[in-house]
Write a structure and sequence with these properties.
The complex is a heterodimer of chains A (about 250) and B (about 240). With about 250 residues, chain A is of the alpha/beta class. Chain A is about 40% helix and about 30% strand. Chain B has one domain (about 10-190). Chain B has helices spanning about 15-25, 190-200, 205-215, 225-244, and strands at about 30-35, 40-45, 50-60, 65-70, 75-85, 90-100, 105-110, 120-125, 130-140, 150-160, 165-175, 180-185. The chains are: A alpha/beta (about 250), B alpha/beta (about 240).
Chain lengths: ~250, ~240
């Protein structure tokens, strides 16, 4: 589903990704762990197409399409979802308007009909209830006045609403208390299916207690240095990143 | 004022003087007068170039809700002088939309002549290409105008760095028991917000339009007439669509 080959990327003058290769198949959940500065968030931003992240070498394909050749909104419409480490506040644009605009823009690009108001609200009610977001919050500006945990729950809400094929979750667990972590993890687990895939970017093992990955990768100095099963995450938790071969 | 102003005149220093000379002398000021104790709402759209003078007179306890949208293809100046008597209340929301190389100005002079009056001003300037957008906002509080409550918020959004925004608050206060809040910012669209919208599937031009609409919207938030407010918002949206 996602094929990344020998990816090199720079931010400003600095090369952050130095030959990263990764393959994620439909139905799988992969986790990328690694120390600060390894390039985890850079990978997420490069895949989503953020300005200022330049790919100098290598390729990334999503369902056979050249991801790097697509605009950020085209990647979203193709089914790629980036869960932000730091979700952005947008005053003056309500969460509901934001989501409906996004859903319809994606549908338009895919040649589908717009979602009706009734259908949209029905979905909003169902998804928000499971994540503990109430209607008053959703009528407020995007993430405005939300706590750290509420912002992450809002990311999980958007994931549920937009129904992408691939969820790329950048430190979704950071800043969450135990209850919020459980709620967000349940959101991710509901998302899992044979047709979909998840790439979890995380510092810590604790998210992986709730969302069990099929494969764990270690990212260090811009490359994947080790891959293994869930036991690799446990070993890292016990030993730290220092003993890794770079 | 009958003599042609010059750039040395503080109130005209950002004006398009060639255009001013061609338009001089201006038409007499249009009067908006609200008698004591009454309330009014007014919406002004300026789509034609020109010098538009307005004089607002609010009687004791009178209330006026004034919304202004300036969006012209040639030089436009809207200058408003408001006199507030005791306990009067003025809510002014002004939006200026400029593209091309147009010079547009909103000039307000709010005079709290008597005690206990309240004024609220929200001005939003959106400029693109080589346009110049200016807001000069003066608040004058007379010697006995105690317990004046005045607030002025001026914000400019520069869509291209070739455009120019001039915002100037000016407070002249002769009473000692007054509240005069003012804030003034010039900025660009938030890049993080744009990327957030794009990453959810919204194309860049639409994302820019959505953020710009949100920027403008609070200028009209004081308008109680929802239909009038929506009409102004729709006009802003059309202007933005024409730009995209």
């Amino acid at each position: 589903m996602l094929e990344i080959t020998n990816l090199h990327a720079t931010v400003g003058e600095r090369e952050i990704l130095k030959g990263l290769t990764l393959s994620v198949k439909a139905g799988e959940v992969h986790a990328i762990m690694g120390p600060n500065g390894a390039g985890k968030s850079t990978l997420a931003h490069v895949l989503a197409g953020r300005e200022g992240y330049e790919v100098t070498k290598g390729s990334a394909h999503f369902e056979g399409r050249d991801l790097l050749d697509m605009e950020p909104h085209e990647r979203a419409a193709a089914g790629l979802f980036l869960g932000f480490q730091y979700p952005v506040e947008i005053p003056g644009v309500s969460n509901l308007l934001f989501l409906r605009t996004a859903m319809n823009a994606q549908r338009k690009l895919r040649g589908e009909a717009e979602i009706s108001g009734a259908e949209f609200m029905k979905k909003v009610k169902a998804e928000s209830a499971t994540l503990g977001l109430d209607m008053d919050m959703l009528k407020r500006g995007v993430n405005v006045g939300f706590s750290g945990g509420e912002k992450k729950r809002n990311e999980a809400f958007q994931l549920g609403m937009l129904e992408p094929k691939f969820a790329l979750l950048d430190e979704t667990d950071s800043g969450l208390d135990i209850d919020a972590l459980r709620i967000v993890s349940e959101g991710i687990n509901r998302f899992r299916s044979a047709e979909r895939a998840v790439l979890l970017i995380t510092h810590y093992q604790r998210l992986l207690d709730h969302v069990r990955p099929d494969v764990v990768h270690v990212l260090a100095k811009g490359r994947i240095v080790e891959s293994g099963g869930p036991e690799l995450a446990l070993r890292l938790e016990a030993q730290g990143y220092e003993g890794l071969a770079a | 004022m009958s003599a042609l102003p010059t750039r040395k005149d503080e109130a005209w220093r950002y004006s398009d003087m060639a255009a001013v000379a061609a338009l001089w002398p201006p038409q007499p000021a249009r009067l908006i007068s609200v008698p004591a104790g009454e309330a009014r709402a007014d919406v002004l759209r300026v789509t034609e170039g020109g010098i538009h003078d307005l004089r607002v007179e609010l009687g004791a306890g009178a209330r006026l809700n004034l919304a202004l949208l300036v969006q012209s293809a040639s030089y436009a100046r809207v200058a408003l002088v408001a006199h507030l008597k005791a306990g009067a209340s003025l809510d002014f929301g002004g939006v200026l939309l400029g593209a091309g190389a147009v010079v547009q100005e909103i000039v307000t002079d709010i005079r709290h002549d008597e005690p206990d009056a309240e004024s609220r001003q929200r001005v939003r300037v959106v400029i693109d290409e080589r346009a110049v957008g200016t807001y000069l906002g003066r608040i004058a509080v007379a010697r006995d105008a105690q317990r004046t409550d005045a607030a002025q918020s001026a914000r400019a959004l520069v869509l291209k760095r070739t455009a120019t925004a001039n915002l100037k608050p000016e407070l002249e206060i002769y009473a000692d028991d007054v509240k005069c809040a003012h804030g003034c910012t010039v900025g660009e669209l938030d890049k993080a917000g744009l990327f957030y919208l794009q990453s959810r599937g919204v194309p860049r031009p639409e994302a820019e339009a959505l953020l710009t609409r949100a920027f403008v919207a609070d200028a009209f938030a004081g308008l109680e007439d929802a239909a009038a407010r929506e009409a102004l918002e729709a006009e802003t949206a059309r202007w933005l669509e024409a730009r995209a």
